[in-house]
Structure formats: C-alpha cells, structure tokens
Amino acid sequence: MPRTATPRTRTPAVPSSATVAADPSASPVPRVADPDRRRTSASAVLRSVLEHGPVARSTVARLTGLSPAAVTEHCARLAGLGLVREAAPPRTAGARVGRPHVPVELDDTGFVVAGVHVAVPYTTVALLDLRGRVLARREVKHASADPARVLSGAVDALQALLTRAGRPALNVGVAVGGWVDRDSGTVVEHPLLGWRDVPVREQLGARTGLPVHVDGHARALVNAERLFGRARGSGSLLHLFVGNVVDAAFATRDGVHHGPRSQAGAIAHLPLAGGSEPCGCGRVGCLQVELSERTLCRRAREAGVVDGANPMRVVAAAAGGHPVAVRLLVERARMVGRAAALLLDVLNPERVVVTEVGAMLRADCLAALREEVGAARADCVAPTSFPLDSVLAVAGGAVALDVLFRDPLGASPRFN
Q1: How confident is the model at residue 11 (pLDDT cuts 50, 70, 90)?
Q2: Which domain holds residue 72?
Q3: Which of 104, 154, 350, 373 has the smallest CB count inside 10 Å?
Q4: What DSSP assignment string belongs to 201-258?
C-alpha cells in the first residue's frame, strides 16, 4: 500500500475547522513535493474538493500549490474516473464578461465503498458514499468466533447490500480491534476473539473480487475524523476507543502513526491509577479490563441493574433514572478521562476524540471525563463526530476511503 509523503513546504499554524471553512486559503491539504508527483497531486486535488467543494479550480490551485494547468488536468482525470463532477456555477447579479468559473465537487452519486467492522459479539457491514455517509448497514451476530465463519457471514451480508444498492463498489475496508498488520492485511492477534494470524485481506478478496484493505479500528476512526469529522484540520489528533476492546491511534498532519507491523496504539495493558480489575496478564487495573464493556456489564449484573452483556441496557437504565446505572457510567467515564489524561501527557496532541458510549450519549459522563483530564485541557477533548448507530460502519468504510483519498488513481482496478 502506498505511503503518504511528508510535505516539504512550510506549514502555517493550524486553523480550526470553522476557520478552514470560512477561509479556503487556510486549507490543511498538504502541498505537493513528492517523487511520485502524479499520485500525490491527484490526492491533494481530491482532498481539496472534498473539504471545500464546490470549489473553483483556481482555488484548488492556491490550496495545493499546483499550477492551474495541473489542477485542470487532474480534475479532468478525476472526473473521468467518476470521482468529481462540475457543479452549477454560482449565480451572480448582472452580466459578467468572460467565461464563468465552473466549480467542481465530489461526485457522491456513482461509486460506494464497502465497510466491515468486526466486533466481539457481531460484525457490522455497510455501504458508504465518498463523503463517508452510511447508505446501508447490517449487523451480523456471531454464532461462533471462528474467523472463517465470521468472514463468510460478512461477505454474504455485504453481497446482499450491494445487490440492493445497484451501485458499484470501489473497494472494501475492514476495521478490527486487537493487533492488525495493515501492510499484510492480517489480524495478527485478537485475544477476545481468539484470532491469530488471520489473513483477512486474502480471504475477503478471494470472496468479493474487490481490493480489500484492513486496519485497526482506532486508526480507522482517526482517519474518519481527519477526512469527515469535526477534527478535520487538526495538526495532531489522538483517538481513544473504549468498547470491549480498548485501544488508541495517533495522527499528525502527515498521517496516522502505525509503527513496525502496525503495533502502535496497543494500550490494553497500560496501568490505570485506581483500577481494581485483575487482568489475565497477572497485574491489576490494566486499561482494557478496567474500562471494557464486558466489565461494565458484569458490574451492572452484579448490582442487579440489568441482565446480559449489552451496554446499551445499562445506558437505558440510567436514562430511566436508575442511580446505580448512572453511577457505573459516570465512574467509567471518569476512568476513561484518566486514561485520556495519561495519553495527553505522553503525546500532547492538539485534539482528543473519544469513542465511548457514556461520553457519546450523556452530558454527565462527558463532564466527568473532561474533569479528570483537567480544566486546562478539557476543551480539546470531544466525543466522536459520528452517531452511535453508525460509528462502527464508518470505521470500516474509513479504511477504504483513506486509501481512496491517499491514492485516487490507484485505489481500484476500475481506474486502471
């Protein structure tokens, strides 16, 4: 998979996303200085159209540092591939001399991408448009954690969605927790599923006939935030995912940090001050056992709040005024804030995004999380940009869309 190049030009101070929208000249799109200029230039143009479209080609040239002729050529190529289109020219009062500037915008009516997110109890399969919007999705419960059965069920559900959609898919993105090697498309280790060295890319590619890209779900969601979320334009971004699996991802303007064999972000066994849960590693208070949804649900069962292992039942009980459910969610959010504070101390990102059910749905949980982070840094911490019912679908699709926006000319065999 091609790597994103490091920009060589001087980068100005990073504006907020609101400033970017108001002032296109402040775009975070990287300027181009790469040996593979054709690929990198096409990526810069497509990113500019995504972020600012409908946008004039002259503005794209200013944003990217490319010549107007180069931008015109790339826009024509991208339009020929079905990725951008000309938009209606803006209305102007009175007569205007000369040819009007016809803006370009992302063409979100043709292709879709497929997203697959493998969680512990179920797999979410979805179709997304090129703006990262979920068009259709389905959850497939796991009758078994056997990887062949899980992936086969995902393919069957995906094919059903594609048949109904009537739109061609460019590629498939797969997001999974645990240790995921992006370069080989392999789930190296997922302890909760019992997976080791599962060749996900190979197996899904053989069944779907489409390019398949695989990554960890925290890295997938940090890319979603950078492409489509409220954190777009941030100079550096930390994403903390708290579900059954607890992991993190860190991105700068140059891209997401993966590390050797994509092991970056493995925080499951970081010690959490105040933790009391015994971990299988032999220690007490590791992040994952302390914060996981399994632990939350077990504590709720022991307190007589709910039955089963669905965290949404705890949320529903809290919404109904059950004081123990409220306490469990707020205490968990506070511990998530403690973990976020630890990672803030180490990485010092500009922004932190948290995907955790309490912080996403309850103001008291978000307040507890931010209080633990501390007043000086509380404003930089926010819940995910995506709704609870679509965040996992977005994670899978973001793996595919990240590839498209990094290399639009080579993202699919359809373009060759």
Answers
A1: very low
A2: 41-87
A3: 350
A4: HHHHHHHH-S-EEEEEHHHHHHHHHHHHSTTTT-SEEEEEEESSSEEEEEEETTEE--
